[in-house]
Amino acid sequence: MTLVIVIIVAIVVILAIALMVSYNRFVKQRNLIQESWRQIDVELHRRYDLIPNLVETVRAFAAHERHVFEEVARLRTQAVNVQGAPPEQRAAAESELSGALRQMMISVEAYPQLQSNQNFLNLQRELTDTEDRIAAGRRFFNANVGDYNTRIEAFPSNLIANSFKFEKAGYFEVNDEQVRSVPQVSFGTIGSVAGEQAPPQMQPGAQSSGQIQPQIPGNEQGGYPQPQINQYPPQQGQPQQYPPQQGQPPVGGPPAGAPGPQDGQPPFTGSH
Fold first, then answer.
1. Which of 114, 185, 231, 261 is placed for a possible disulfide with 61 were both Cys, Cβ 3.0 to 4.6 Å?
2. pLDDT one-digit tens code per residue, 28-44
């Protein structure tokens, strides 16, 4: 009887420890999500502070782009007003603001003087760095949310989540098509990379044989050198090619396998 009581007590203790560990892990993950979201919120506030300065700088050079500036200001105010909203709602507002900023940057391309303005370049650089930090924080936040939501749905941790009212967290997703688009690759510039050589071109009037023939150094015509004709042992001091030129007999006899004299021709004598 005592052994049964000890076993029951041990099981209860093990379950209590497992319950405590699982609960503490939920709390830790929830706090990590909140901390990662605060890092994103800091960068978003920095972007809110940079936008008015950037708009005023652009306005000084492109005053007639009034509708673009008004749209950026309206969407910035809208994003600031939803700071206490869930991540999904804030992500929608930030996507609209990013689209308006991109439209303003496109209009800047028509003003070369603005693109060379040092104040504009500094603000643009700071805004780009802020956007990069927001993207990095968003990836970290979404990864933590994914782990947290998985534990809420998985068994047996879902029993702890339902008992202590742990709810699923929302993602901070980007619905901007410009961010999700695949970069375009131009195959027309592959051959112009430094250090690469263009493929050899055919000479004018030459017919293609389906293979690329490389250029041979020292041959000005761009073709292969003419192969040497098999030579028969020549006389001393004077080379003799076989077959002989027309009207000249070969020296020393033909090589093995050469055809014999035809009818009407003098036999091979081996000397001139």
1. 114
2. 999 999 999 999 999 99
